[in-house]
């Protein structure tokens, strides 16, 4: 495991009008590791991801990427750094084939025509690099693929562009047992290939099966980021539902809907 984060967030605040969604959030994602981002509905997970990906500007805080402060003002800035997001809806076009989907909006050209051989070769190399063997033909329409195969194509599309950080939003939602196992294996392979991976999931079995670290959001605050081996399933559930468990997380129960400051503890900080 790397001791230096690829992405580090410090003191991130984000409000929408009078509603403060993120408050003084610290977060880190490490190369070669899967960091699971967990939290109840409304905890701020989606907002945090949209801040990282440049969709929402932050109100305060600092981004450090690959050891240097950076500004992420729009999705182009994030993509330029090597940050890619695979959202739950996958953003794939059923009427296009795998190659066309992987290069959608970023097509390679030879003069005024599309460079189909180069795109097909790059798509094949990307899938092969991820050890994907479930796709029969790169020219299959996405409409003919299973849920697990669609997720595989969406992930391959994200890593095609020399990505350094890949964020996956509920990649196993609505998948069967066998397809879930295939996707989790692919998630693990991304990290083993040196990428920093952020996995958003409500499925604790998936989280413990594949993650190296777990970051827990509670009512807009990052209450803990710990190594997966240093915490139990029950403790993660307590962090998600109450913001603390034992000496990890918030120092006291929130009063009248206000969040307290996370306690000073080794487990509650960045492990």
Note down, in words, how this protein is organized:
A hairpin with a 2-residue loop joins β7 (109-110) and β8 (113-114). The chain is built from eight helices and 14 strands. It is globular, with a radius of gyration of 19 Å. The strands form four sheets. The chain has a six-stranded mixed β-sheet with strand order 6-9-10-3-11-12, sandwiched between helices. Strands 2-1-4-5 form a four-stranded antiparallel β-sheet, with helices on one face. Helix content is 30%, strand content 26%. The chain has two domains: 1-82 and 163-271, 3-Layer(aba) Sandwich (Rossmann fold), CATH 3.40.50; 93-162, no CATH class. Residues 254-271 have low confidence and may be disordered. By secondary structure, the chain is α/β, with parallel strands linked by helices.
SSE inventory with pairings:
Blueprint: E1 7-16, E2 19-29, E3 34-38, H1 45-52, E4 60-65, E5 68-70, H2 75-81, E6 83-86, H3 98-102, E7 109-110, E8 113-114, H4 116-129, H5 147-159, E9 165-169, H6 177-192, E10 196-200, H7 204-210, E11 213-218, E12 221-227, H8 233-242, E13 244-245, E14 248-249
Parallel strand pairs: 3-10, 3-11, 6-9, 9-10
Antiparallel strand pairs: 1-2, 1-4, 4-5, 7-8, 11-12, 13-14
Helix pairs in contact: 5-6
């Amino acid at each position: 495991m790397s001791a230096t984060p690829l992405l580090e967030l410090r003191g991130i605040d984000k409000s929408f009008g009078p509603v403060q969604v993120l408050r003084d959030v610290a977060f880190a994602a490490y190369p070669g590791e899967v960091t699971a981002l967990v939290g109840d509905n409304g905890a701020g997970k989606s907002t945090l991801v949209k801040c990282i990906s440049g969709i929402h500007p932050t109100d305060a805080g600092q981004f450090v990427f690959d050891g240097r402060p950076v500004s992420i003002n729009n999705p182009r800035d994030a993509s330029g750094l090597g940050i890619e997001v695979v959202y739950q809806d996958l953003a794939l076009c059923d009427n296009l084939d795998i190659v066309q989907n992987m290069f959608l909006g970023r097509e390679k050209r030879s003069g005024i025509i599309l460079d189909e051989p180069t795109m097909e070769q790059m798509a094949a190399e990307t899938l092969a690099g991820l050890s994907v063997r479930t796709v029969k033909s790169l020219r299959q329409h996405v409409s003919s693929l299973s849920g697990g195969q669609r997720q595989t194509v969406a992930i391959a599309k994200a890593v095609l562009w020399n990505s350094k950080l890949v964020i996956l939003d509920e990649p196993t939602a609505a998948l069967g047992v066998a397809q879930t196992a295939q996707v989790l294996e692919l998630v693990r392979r991304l990290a083993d290939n040196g990428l920093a991976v952020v996995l958003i999931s409500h499925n604790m079995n998936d989280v413990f099966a594949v993650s190296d670290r777990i970051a827990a959001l509670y009512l807009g605050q990052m209450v803990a980021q710990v190594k997966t081996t240093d915490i139990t399933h029950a403790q993660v559930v307590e962090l998600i539902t109450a913001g603390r468990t034992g000496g990890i997380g918030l120092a006291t129960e929130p009063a009248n809907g206000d969040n307290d400051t996370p306690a000073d503890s080794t487990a509650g900080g960045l492990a």
